[in-house]
Specification:
450 residues, alpha+beta, Anthranilate synthase, 10-stranded antiparallel β-sheet, 11 helices, 30% strand, EC 2.6.1.85
Length: 450
Amino acid sequence: MPSCSIHSLPYRADPTIFFERVRHAPGAVLLDAGRPTAERGRFDLISAWPQLELTPRADESGKTFLQRLRHALKLLGSAKLPEELQLPFAGGLIGYLSYDFGRRLEQLPSQARDDLGLADARFGLYAWALISDHQQATSQLLFHPSLPAAERERLVRLFSNAPTSKSPPCFRLTSSFSADQDRASYRAAIERIQQYIAAGDCYQINFAQRFQASCQGDPWTAYRALRQACPTPFAGYLQLDAESALLSLSPERFLRVSAGQVETRPIKGTRPRLADPQADLASATELLSSSKDRAENLMIVDLLRNDLGRSCAIGSVRVPELFSLESYPNVHHLTSCVTGRLADGQDALDLLAGSFPGGSITGAPKIRAMQIIDELEPSRRGPYCGSLLYLDVRGEMDSSIVIRSLLVSNGSVSCWGGGGVVADSHWEAEYQESIDKVKVLLGTLEKLSH
């Protein structure tokens, strides 16, 4: 099997310095571990100029589109890494699945309005990547064997030359953020969900509201400010066109596949961070001991065990971590971990087809939850609760749940916040949680505008 080639660069803990060189290029993408401030993520991955771009056709089923992704990987060709290297990517696909890609996998109603005009999925096929490994303190250009020598030389020059210093372009809001639901509508939706729960339709629904404002300027400037205010290990920036981008500050892994081993880390349970250290500790302790939040988390763990079981070997699905605390600048989270091993004949795309969208952002049971979400949320989610991911030619994959994320498109910026609703939820607390989760993001963009 042909081997990828490597060119070493000076290590950078902050990937924005490298990404500045390509951010105007077609298909520019940064998968960002949030360093140097965030601590959990290991790798940054940067690429641009994809050889192919793939989006679903009008009436194409989800499984047919995923099969086209398989075919694209075959077109690029098999490759391995030099033996001494442990890198996550050897050339392959990088892109997103929107939450509404789920409509191509399951039969769902179409009540919520689709006013974003975003493709249900978009992937580029990339033959190179700049990968920084923060454990080993290395930054390296990786070239798939199919990449022409002239293109390798161009990329080496591009990233080796001294950066040109320019004043950063501006980004500003031209209106205040407004929600797509008022308090009365939100309360009515929560009460309707609880009626569905009482009737036995579902156990839990993840309900969200969208905040939207008009904006002008460069979304990359917005992303840089956001990652400084809220560094997270599964962040990412994907340039969609000259003025549109997906900006993700996600703390949540969706699915990871490495050497056939599968991991998912659902988040369910949230408390706000507090300025006083003792009060903040009390907030975290309350979350860890909350029977409501633990029950919500356990419901989602059970759902994900079932989802993984569709593609994993019988008896391989395990829960090595239950109810762990993860803390971020704005919130504490309750997180668990579910693992498995892909069954013979199954690959990462089979796993995606059987597990998408993530159970932590739908509710349980999943399909009924998605039907209720479509009925009660006035607008479609678009990228929110979808996934930003890579899948390489070896079958290695990592993916996030697109939460704490924003879409800049058509002169507006959209951001979503939500949470899990159960039988004993209080609507005021749910409403406040949806705001707490995105307050740091909205506040950061408002500060940029003054």
